[in-house]
Fold:
Amino acid sequence: MGDDSITLGPQGGLARGMSVRGPPSMSAALPEISPNPGDSRRMTAGLNGFSSLSERGTYNPREDLMPRFVLPDRFGGPAAYDQSSAPERNINFGGRDPRSSDRSFERSLTTPSTRTQGAALTQNVPSEKSEERLRDMSLGAIKEFYSARDEKEVVLCIKDLNSPSFHPTMISLWVTDSFERKDGERDLFAKLLVNLTKSQDGTLSQSQLIKGFENVLSTLEDAVNDAPRAPEFLARIFAKGILENVVSLNQIGQLIREGGEEPGRLLEVGLAGNVLGNILEIIKSEKGESVLNEIRTSSNLRLENFRPPDPLKSRTLEKFL
Structure:
């Protein structure tokens, strides 16, 4: 052996544990040498700087499951030990909870860009829900009106909506809903629209009313599938607005002629002629032929332009041609 002294270091499982936790304090006692020859050879190679694969000893499959770290050289001086890596290895100095490092790591995963993207998504959600909320509130208001017959409550609800840009959509929802109502309720609804548009506080404007009617006409072809008399019901609402001077026959005529899912679609399928023919029929029955002729003359509408293409015919319109 000679006179050279031999220095023993921790080996086996303890050596691998030290590679994760860092070097023990100087006061720690040296453990017994592991009886595992493979661990002994690996430990000796780590201490003496050997790196050849032939000196690693017996292969242990569990080694691939463990992170591989270089064992710090206890005798290489301060330069051999990197203090900057201590927090990453969760070294427990002074009773520090190693789980705090895990929490710090989790917090570090939430980068500023991630938080910014999350905030942007959150800001988009309320806008989508507000549209749905406006629809629910407006439909709830008209249902309450049919029950209580209180126009003031409807006015208060419109003010609570606080969204003038939504008024055309609200009107179209109300008109489409009226197709499923009784005749008496539709008459009350037509009167409600007139009063809201004529109100001094400007609850509804004429432009909002016309835009709402335009929205209804764009979906009328589909509405007829569920309510075959929808053109007649819509004509009654239009006629009420014309007789109350809220809208003119000329304005309604233009909406009808250009209406549909695509411009002019209602004219192609014959619905335009049916709606206009019903409007004229209602005005005549309520106010007489003289009033009808006066309204027709002032509107300058050419009824021939509302005839559907052959072979379609509009019986209600043909009565006035």
